[in-house]
Amino acid sequence: VTENISIYKYILHKNYKAILYPPKRLSDLLIILRAKYLFGTHNNVLPIFLLSTKKTAFQTWHGIPIKNMGLKRKDMTNTEKRIAQYMLNQADYFLSPSKMYSDAMSLCFGIPKEKFIQTGYPRNDILSLSCNKRQILRDVGIPEEYLASKVLLYAPTFRKDQNTTLFPFSDFSI
Question: Helix or strand or coil: residue 134?
Fold first, then answer.
């Protein structure tokens, strides 16, 4: 289940079942409502109506809060802070790559430390496992002639009230 049309298409392309949220068919809504485990990211953890005491909700937020984020933002109103805190409280567990991350997120968002499970980042696991580098690079669209090269990952971070340009280097050429 995803709200992101690109991810939805990618999942379908890989021949997996995908549901675009919000669902347009009753059968898709029923699948979501019957789910035992729910995974979300950032403050859009889960729509409130999907939660029940029979579900376990995981927050997979990625990125380390080293800037003024969450409850530490000085420009947040008290109402915005209460809403953010409420949304984060909907998660039963938070996946964490390290103790440092757990401590920073706990401080920044007021999340009890016992809610953190130090697992690593699911989206990065494939990069650290014994795997086929050639296939990963193909999957992300890197041409064959670059497979023997080192690959640099540029991953822009949170920018308050700014759109992030995915590759903002006009003077770069290969």
Answer: helix
For residues 112 and 103, give the distance between their C-alpha atoms in angstroms, rounded to a whole number: 9
SS3 113: helix
DSSP-derived 3-state class of residue 82:
helix
Please give the structure tokens belonging to residue 39.
């995974």
Beta bridge partners of 117: 95
Residues 67 and 56: beta-carbon distance below 8 Å: no
Tell me the sheet residues that pair with 93. 58
In this prediction the pTM is: 0.63
For the stretch 125-143, pLDDT in tens is 666 666 677 777 777 777 7
Give every CB contact of residue 101 below 8 A, 6+ residues apart in sequence. 64, 116
Q: Pull the structure tokens for residue 174.
A: 């290969």
Which residues are CB-neighbours of 29 under 8 A, at least 6 positions away? 23
Residue 158 tokens, joined: 């949170």
